[in-house]
């Protein structure tokens, strides 16, 4: 039987190079390892999760698809389940951006040996990009994928120096134009709408914090409008 992935997970698998040694951190149902093995992409796969329940589910799914001898399952937190140099590609998908930054810091001897990280934060994307750009990583791809009504961000990272021309790139990504134009426009318009909603909620408040937040959001909307014009030209 052929496993069908959601658009978000499918996009992640498309980023895996042939014969990579892959670790899927927070594997949940084990769908990414199954799909990769089904399509004969990796040389080696580790599927890990911090919770026994999801890992047991992943084990059952992997066995059901006939890959019990080709995927290694490990119980533990983040990169602590790995040895230095054991894999070259790490996937961390479906977690918050703050948690991902924490996971990248726990075992530096493992982190520094990874060639490529494929990160898919569910929120705090700006904070994650800021951490990466200021801690010896370069973002090589910022990809958008729409699933139902939500646009997800996928960040591909390698070791290197990140050039930061403007703070707004932490918000919108460093490679927005590499995405389909209509999707990138929808992404920016969504961010502008969110900022305008915040402005509307604080503009009648007179506290120093509300005034500061209002000014911050107004500046961000202006930057997003500039980005939208740049995208359309």
TrEMBL record:
It comes from the Bacteria. SUPFAM superfamilies: S-adenosyl-L-methionine-dependent methyltransferases. The keyword Methyltransferase applies. Gene3D superfamilies: Vaccinia Virus protein VP39 (3.40.50.150). Keywords: Methyltransferase, Transferase. GO terms for biological process: methylation. GO terms for molecular function: tRNA (adenine(22)-N1)-methyltransferase activity. InterPro entries: SAM-dependent_MTases_sf, TrmK. This is tRNA (Adenine22-N1)-methyltransferase.
